[in-house]
Fold:
Amino acid sequence: MGDGAEMTAGAERELGERIIRELYRDPDYIDDPILMEYVQGIWQPLLAAARARGELPPELDERFAWDILLGRDGSVNAFALPGGFLGLHLGLIGVVTSADELASVLAHELSHVTQRHISRLMTQQTRQTPLMVGAMILAALAASKSPELASAVVTGGQALATQNQLNFSRDMEREADRVGYGVMTQAGFEPRGFVSMFEKLQQASRLTDNGSYPYLRSHPLTTERIGDMQGRVLIDARRSGPQEPSMEHAMLAARARVLSYPGVDLLRAWMAEPQTSGFASLSEPRRAAVLYSAALAGERLREPGRALGLAQQLITVTQGDAAASRQARLLAAEIALSAGNAPLAGRLLAQDGRAKTGRPELLLGARIRTREGQFPQAVDLLQTWVAVHPRDAAAWQALAVAYRAQNEPLRAIRAEGEVQMAIYDFAGAVDRFKAARTVSGKGNLLPADHIEASIIDTRLRQAESRLREQALER
Structure:
């Protein structure tokens, strides 16, 4: 369909940042290192495949963010925003049965961005200012949780018009299917995942719409779209073998379900499920998922003894699968730390060969060391990480905690400023960097603090510059 958008890539990125700042403030936003690592393990190959196929032009690749935000929402939904930002609800991760199905959704949303569908839709609304378009997009997202919240963002008729504007045209949907299919298969995912995801959505569309599948409303299925995907899979049948859910995916889907605010009654039901008569007859992936749900539910219900016992059962069940065994030990260490048993958490984490490489191990390991009073070790781990990943807000926050614990207020405040920079809250960053400069002006600085003070001055100027840009956008 080509690139007929009038909005520049830079303007689209600015609009995306304006919207994403509000989503970072949403209490439903969640940066769960374990789920985020799994999603990124699917997302990064898709980006690489889009580049290799020429679907991702260098200008967009450089200017757009290509960030994914997770929402602690039980509804089945995913959405693309201007500027290369994508949103993914935990409810979607909880219902897909394989990484291939999740890849099909992400590839479809990625293709909406690379084909400039969002920009074209906004360009059609020539009478709307970018600020109003941003408010309307936020209203459409809010409407999936609360109509009252949506009407607080934009009123009456505008909200209705918003949904119509955000619904992609049939041509755009077909193009996102076609391009997304090529991207996911080139990335190494099974093409059958596209059709099985369609079948899941089609089955849901036959049921009474209770609002749990907002993805269906923004991406309505048609017989033509489903038939087209089925035909592509038949042509590519040599690669579309049966989809057996991996043990790791089953466990992480269970994690997504538990973290999406399911309610106390459901948590108790999940915790009791391993004691039911049919548990022993379940397949290994299903047993692992049940134990994972039960252990994490026990931790959420503040029953650490039962939760740790269930996690130990999970470790036994997953012994033959390296990826699943790693997830079991991470969960057990997480539960032990939550129960206040940092030494046990450290021992569980040390049993895994990836103890110093994965982001979940890094953040959990830093928390364990801080809890045990090993502040220099925690700082060393985190400093190395943020040097390579400067936009990792969770790592900067952990670093701020470790700095404060070892009585380094200047560095702690600077780290808090970096947290705000990472989530595009430049006003908050300016506040923190100014506070750090006040601390540095009191004298009695160590030699290393003078270097830190110089860095803070530079970051303050950068934050103030971005804040002025925001003011001009308004």
The radius of gyration is 23 Å.
